[in-house]
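Appendix C reproduces, verbatim, an entry submitted by the partner laboratory led by Prof. M.T., so that reviewers can inspect both the input and the predicted structure.
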Amino acid sequence: MKHSTSRRAAAVRGVGLALGAALSLGLAPAASAQQVTFMTGPQGGSWIPLGGALKGIWEKAVPGLKIQMTPGAGISNVRGVDAGKAHIGFGNSITTVDGVKGNPPYPKATTNVCQVANLYPQYFQVVALADAGINTVADLKGKASVMQSRGNTAELITQHILKTQGLTYDSLRKANFVASYDDAVSMLKDGQAEVFTLGTTAPASSVMNLASARDIKLIGVDEKTLAEMKKINPGYNMATIKAGTYQKQDKDVNVIAYSTHLVAACDLPEDVVYNMTKSLAENAADLVAVVKAVSGLDAKKMAQDIGVPFHKGSEKYYKEVGAL
């Protein structure tokens, strides 16, 4: 097994070096060296369409590069990149930092996950049916709730926010775990659940879908809840989902927020990541049509330190343009 693993590692390095060399020369690499696997997000979230937009930018700007997209989620993406199952992926700042430090839910510290770029803020949203009698997070007690599959970022945040109220999944009438936000919406439409949680942009297409069929209420948090969340993970902060973001939302709602970012395997060739970072910075405006929250993204914002080590390729680009 050890020899087999070594051979696989050597093969990956060989492919990476061939791709890096081809890119540095402006040449299309051999077919076997073109593929880069990109872990995105769950169905119904913003990461899949954003991944498609990035794929288009990268394949157009970087000679010979071919991106293979695959669904994922924040924590599983970081694990996948670290384990060599993917080359790049979306992550959430709070849980990627946990990975680097070896904090739960990671069994050990990640060693091959590097920062490429910050992208935009993510909003942790608690969405309840309007007639469910839920006005605060504490009101989730005794309710049927639906979350992402266990181990995903939004599911972990759900545990954290329940903890701030002295609650656990056992405090709920029923805790449901699903692979996609679309599945969660279906459960609320059918009356199988009264509230669901998700971490994505605002507006979220899945929440808009639900709001088109049922009256909903976005549940906010206060400063006390934020303070308790920060005790659990200092990466949490607060952001406002403005009135009118969702159908019948007549007031601003404060929610827990964190950052979406891109990570890459630290051993992905420097030239590859340099070119991907450069083309992202130069074409960031093209992403706004897909995810509005990306508006205003530039190299300086991409290069903000979030506690995850930079990939050498990204670091090189940021230093060149004065962002670091």
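The beta strands are 35-39, 66-70, 88-92, 113-129, 144-148, 174-178, 195-200, 216-219, 237-241, 253-265. Additional entries are available on request from the coordinating office.
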